[in-house]
Amino acid sequence: MPAPSAIQTAVARPVPPAHAEGERLFNLHCAGCHGVQALGTTKGPPLLSPIYFPNHHSDGAFQVAVQRGVTPHHFNFGPMPPIQGVSPDQVSAITGYVRWLQQQTIIGSGG
Ligand code: HEC
Q: What is the pLDDT of residues 45-58, one digit of tens each?
């Protein structure tokens, strides 16, 4: 599997209440492919990979990915289908949670 190898450890600290709803929605709609805590699975990449940090993939990229799906261009997992039943506000909540996870990863890796 060609997933990036940099991200191996789960985020240990508790999720802040502000991101509880984003976590719930992420686990419901996204974790099946992107993994618990966005660590990745055999069906989708870890969103904690630095290529998904805000300087490469803006919050708008998350909205577009969910609405239209994704044609594979970074990995060999195949396409991401459009995800039904997730409103733009809910995508914003999910994105907020993923950004928080990304920040924990930066802290956790000492970078
Ligand atoms: C059926 C599996 C699947 C589900 C469910 C899924 N994704 Fe994905 N997602 C993928 C795959 C596969 C890719 C990588 C495509 C590639 O190779 O670039 C991807 C890529 C992405 C990207 C990067 C888009 C880009 O422009 O490169 C974002 C952001 C994303 N997913 C967010 C989400 C969010 C948020 C959810 C939940 C609402 C979600 N995904 C649910 C499979 C999935």
A: 999 988 999 989 99
What amino acid occupies position 26? Answer: F
Q: Give the number of C-alpha atoms closer than 13 A to the C-alpha of residue 87, restricted to the C-beta side.
A: 2
Which single residue is written with the structure tokens 């996870």?
101
> Residue 66 Cα, ligand 1 centroid: separation in angstroms?
7
Which atom number of ligand 1 is nearest to the Cα of residue 95? 35
Kindly state if the Cβ of 34 falls inside 6 Å of ligand 1.
yes
Sorted by sequence, the CB contacts under 8 Å of residue 19 that are 6+ apart come out as 93, 96, 97, 100
How far apart, in Å, are the Cα atoms of 56 and each of 5, 9, 12? 18, 22, 25
**Which tens digits make up the pLDDT trace of 25-82?**
999 999 999 999 999 999 999 999 889 999 899 999 999 999 999 999 999 999 999 9
